[in-house]
Fold this sequence. Notes:
It is globular and about 65 Å long. By secondary structure, it is an alpha/beta fold. The chain has eleven helices and 16 strands.
Amino acid sequence: MVKTVYWEDDQLYLLDQSRLPAEISYQKCVTVEEVAEAIRNLVVRGAPLIGVVAAYGVALAARNYRGHQEELAEYLEKALELLSGTRPTAVNLFQALKRMRQVWHENQALLPDQLAAVLLQEARAIFTEDVAANQAIGRYGADLFQDQVRILTICNAGALATCGYGTALGVVRSCFEQGKLMNVYACETRPVLQGARLTAWELYQDSIPVTLITDGMAGALMQAGEVDGVMVGADRITANGDTANKIGTYSLAVLSRYHQIPFYVAAPMSTIDFSLACGQQIPIEYRDPDEVRTVMGTPITVSNIDVHNPAFDVTPHYLIDAIITEKGVARPPYSETLAELNRI
Length: 344
Ligand code: MRU
């Protein structure tokens, strides 16, 4: 699988996901402003990846600092603020920035160059931990399935959304490695088409069997008995298990319950926001109406038609059969089981 992000010669390289699958190209970021713009414009996306890229952005800001030691604090605070203002829903962004701020505060006595090195080390640690977490999620998640399973997913919660292996697609990968995956149904995921452009491409690259469907086809497929389980990622999970994920996820959860198909969420512990009691408190990102008025830049409707474009929805905890983390599988009641996992 291609790398989503790497650091070389004091510069950050991001796989430009807005161009996939037509083109595999890397965007070079030399300033923190460029990193923030890349997150905002979906050059990089997916909750864990946004977090790690923002962490590298802080390291990049520190590396670029040329002023006096006394003004470094104000400068770094501005960089952290800029990055935290890019996308509001995925909590991994804020968790990663919190970690970076803490490392900075613990090392305030260091010279800017030394501090930059320590911050880079922390960003690399977040990267490495993410891959390990996804592999563990994959192992726990695969245990939930029997033989010859058909899994439906939405958006991209794969290697492309993380530092490698993926969360929901980590479970898919693990099932595939164990020889028990029959097929993946990938919802195309309007308006930005992460399912068609990214998930279908990512699985195809790894020779994992995948069938692309439009979002409206999921119900009929379930009705026909073609789906054994739904596996999705998450952008933020609250203490009671309510889960924000790509718009369309909630519809899949309702359909799954109606058809008695298990509905699972796969996410690292860093996606759980224990400071929020329930899903109504999650800030939902609203994006440019032109994303809906166009498909891949081509207009498909009246140019100024009124549009509703939330990027995420919230699935209530009672529609979720299990939440799979790197520490194990949580089952309802989530307010207890997620807290238990957090204590491990
Ligand atoms: O708008 P995106 O592409 O950043 O949305 C991504 C998702 O909704 C993913 O399912 C989620 O971040 C989990 S990624 C492992």
